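B., you asked whether I could sanity-check this one before it goes into the benchmark set. Here's the sequence:
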Amino acid sequence: MKTRIVRVGCPAHNCGGRCLLIAHINDGVITQLETDDRPDTTADPQLRACVRGRSYLRRQYHPDRLKYPMKRVGKRGEGKFERISWDEALGTFAGEMQRVKETYGNSAFYIPYGTGGSSQLMGSGTAQRLMNLFGGCLGYYSSYSWGVIEQVTSYIYGTDITGNQRQDWLNSKYILMWSWNPAEMRDGTNSDFLIKCARKNGARVVCIDPRMSMSAVSLADEWVPIRPGTDVAMMSAMAYVMIEEKLYDAGFVSTHCIGFDETRMPPGLEHEESYKDYILGTKDGVPKTPGWAEALTGVPRNTIIRIAREYATIKPGVLYQGYGMQRRAYGEQAVLAGCVLASITGNVGVCGGWASGMAYQADDGGVLWNVFPVGENPVKAMIPSFLWSEAVLRGTEMGPEDGVVGAEKLKTSIKLIWAVACNTLVNQHGNINRTVEFLSDENLIEFITVQDQFLTPTARFADILLPACTQFETWGLEDGWKYGDEVLLMPKLVDPPHETKSDYQICADLAEKLGIGEEYTQGRDARAWIEWCIEEYREARFPDIPTLDELEASNAGVYSVPVTEPAIAFKDFRANPEAFPLRTPSGKIEIFSKALYDMGKPDTAPPVPKYIQEWESPFGPEAERYPLLAMGHHAIQRVHSTHDNNDWLRDAFPQRVIINPIDAQERGISNGDNVKVFNQRGATICPCRVTVRILPGVIDIPQGAWWTPDENGVDRAGSTNVLSSQRWTPWTFSNALHTIMVQIENVEG
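And here's what the prediction gave me:
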């Protein structure tokens, strides 16, 4: 029997990378997966798959794959279904769509944020195209991943294209990995490899993180543990050292920045508090000294002083901001503070430097993401993605004060949800116990359709359940995510099993039921749409990309563009700020933001970045009952919640509550004990790992484990979001799921 070998893009599921797999196929079955075997260079490095991609066959051939369309037969949320035909499933769904449209209008429809499929023809984009042809639905903006940083960066720089191409890291002499863990969660394929190259080239790498992550171990020269939620305090103290010791780049600040001190304030605001005023405590009487920050952060003052001196003097330098610090109560401040440190040290617009913030790469502004045409949404109202639950509970009350754009008020609450490749309805949303209570109420949400590959916690709440095939069973295409200059082909490798269909085919069949089939498909099957998408890539960014036929014939799996001269963000602005002003109101880097000043919310949206104590904090009264900070890092065994049922990854990286020996000893906890973690919102029981690789006072429960309640409603899987709240950040209305205070105790059984 001859083995067919095909190079194919990994079904990434939004891991933060895009990698190449080599699939071995025998008699219609994928039998083996390897990874990139091309020549390896820093200009065009191999796209090496991680353990998630290499173990994908355990997911591909999992016995629990959804096989047939089903309808709910018990109470919503019980997870009881019976098999039905595709005709009945799509007919029922189409009928509900017509009913809801006639009763409430199109703004009652909602397709939630979800990233379980992301290859042009997989995922929610296929549903969004159909819904737009059907009259539209309530839209959303931002994401659960980087809802804060993507919005906030432009307040400083007027753009979120603030990153040099990553090969430029080899020109850096100092790299601060702040709340950044590319070795585990990915943040562009090969980011960890390029950090290693920079370190080999002489860069000193420091990782600032509450836990000793895989990145701290494998990439850094030093690990600096910090108390979660206090990053701005350390950044402010570093600025204090730079100001007091005159280490900041005074020339660059004078010519390229506004708002640093009283001599560089926006016109008419000369007497307002400048950044320097805040740091020195001129107006509030609290100098932001390293001693002040030590009490908050847990980082010794001498360490803060040394890190400040190093970053200010070992140039050029990179301060790379990860996303964990901005998924917190006042995450906006962490983003702003990091950008300001990059600016006052003069590391903006230079080879080997880094402006911080969102950091889409220069030259092309990052990847194209999705080129599959979803069309224009006739419903103009949009909500922040994290506030969908509010739009269910009080939709008609929501307006701009809740982040609504495109409308003064929502016309209706959400009545029908179509969740495609999405586990955010339950597992990835805040305060699971609250969420499942209102999801169960059919008077609130009248109909839920879930389209997925497994019976996830979200899928348990479906009224109609549609089985989707995997990426290996249809055609797809993906580019380099946030970073990377490549396009990966995802040809169909094997046939869909049982009665599963691709997301695109499900939508095409539903469109037929709704009488818009021809408009939806435009006469194209999946392969023809991928051919169309490649031509879009050619026109937008890759003029030399081969045709689909040529890509398939070559079996290369990837088209890549080597980066030999890395692009530098803000290079022209650095050289001549008058000729090349930023898109900020002042044309300069806005350390003081007049736009934030005009919001009139100095306590939550100050015009200069400030440390603000979180609403759940070890320094607040809540710490008497719940004294431990809980975090939920993005773990190597999952992509958010995808792969949680992959037994190879579960065995290699079992779900554990990670706790410091000091906290464990106080509570009579030993390594491997079952522990109960709880607060006012819920509880989870899970084995623990006692280790010095996490800061005392902090526990870590890797996010994404599938919520599995027992008969008492206590989760038994280590699902972090039974503990998190539904509160959002003050002015970007984004996910603050990492702000959690808990207690932990030993339990039997």
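One thing to flag: The two ends are 50 Å apart (CA to CA). Otherwise nothing jumped out at me.
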